[in-house]
Write a structure and sequence with these properties.
Layout: E1 2-8, H1 13-16, H2 27-43, E2 46-53, H3 58-66, E3 71-76, H4 85-99, E4 104-108, H5 119-127, E5 131-141, E6 144-151, E7 154-161, E8 164-168, H6 180-186, E9 195-196, H7 230-243
Parallel strand pairs: 1-2, 1-4, 2-3, 3-9, 4-8, 5-8
Antiparallel strand pairs: 5-6, 6-7
Pfam family, one: ETF
Protein name: Electron transfer flavoprotein small subunit
Organism: Anaerostipes hominis (ex Liu et al. 2021)
Length: about 250
């Protein structure tokens, strides 16, 4: 089974201190990484990690290697772009497609510095694959993916074909710890982190300016209306508009 995990970059120290005291992966990302590794142990296959961020996000990519993942990739994006969820989701989808086919794409419920809950849905949309939201348990068999998900009524079981993107909220993972060999390998000079470029030549605008209009400043007589309630204010406004021949 080919599993891909999306991890949020570690924010700068001045931002991180607003959200957690310890340095490193946030709990949501760590849980989903453990889930991927446990699933690999059960079903076999590989675990690949992708991290979106500026060049300093390589730190997060290397930390993932210390947990024993098979491959860790940095998807390079400028600091100013990481706040645009739609742009990040499209970039992540392009990187996943460039890397190759995966059976499951896993992501956590929330980032360290936000809880927009849009990244999973947008990435699944751009990849054109099913989205399984708020999964507490995953099982795979015969090319099918089975999930037990949070719902208003408790838990609902879902079934879908693979590939699929799963937003996981499972917290009771099998305990795992980085081992010395993986730590040494992760930070060895010979260990290179593959980098997926952003395609800076491409431009994506959320809003396109079609026409610019600047009203002319002209002296106007202004009158302040007051009244004891909305009814009285409305009556006074109506009278003023009648006097100005705005209303017939």
């Amino acid at each position: 089974m080919r599993i891909l995990v999306y991890l949020k970059e570690i924010p700068p120290e001045e931002e991180r201190d607003q959200y957690q005291d310890t340095e490193g992966l946030n709990d949501s990302d760590k849980n989903v990484l453990m889930e991927a590794l446990n699933l690999r142990d059960e079903e076999g296959g590989t675990v690949t990690v992708m991290t979106i961020g500026p060049s300093r996000a390589e730190k997060t990519a290397r930390e993932a290697l210390t947990w024993g993942v098979d491959r860790s990739i940095l998807v390079l994006q400028g600091r100013n772009g990481t706040g645009n969820v739609r742009k990040s989701a499209r970039l992540l989808a392009r990187a996943i497609e460039a890397e190759g086919a995966f059976d499951i794409v896993l992501c956590g419920r929330q980032a360290l510095d936000g809880d927009a809950a849009h990244m999973a849905a947008m990435t699944a949309f751009f990849l054109k694959i099913p989205l399984i939201a708020y999964s507490r348990r995953i099982e795979a068999a015969n090319g099918k993916l089975y999930n037990w998900c949070m719902s208003e009524n408790g838990t609902e079981q879902t079934e879908c074909s693979m590939p699929a993107l799963v937003l996981s909220v499972k917290e009771n993972q099998k305990i795992r710890h980085p081992n010395v060999a993986d730590i040494m390998s992760a930070y060895a000079e010979s260990t290179a982190i593959p980098v997926f470029g952003t395609g800076q030549s491409e431009t994506e605008r959320m809003i396109q300016k079609v026409r610019e209009y600047t009203p002319k400043e002209t002296p106007k007589k202004r009158k302040l209306l007051d009244g004891k309630d909305e009814q009285e204010l409305a009556e006074k406004l109506y009278q003023v508009l009648r006097e100005q021949d705005v209303l017939e």
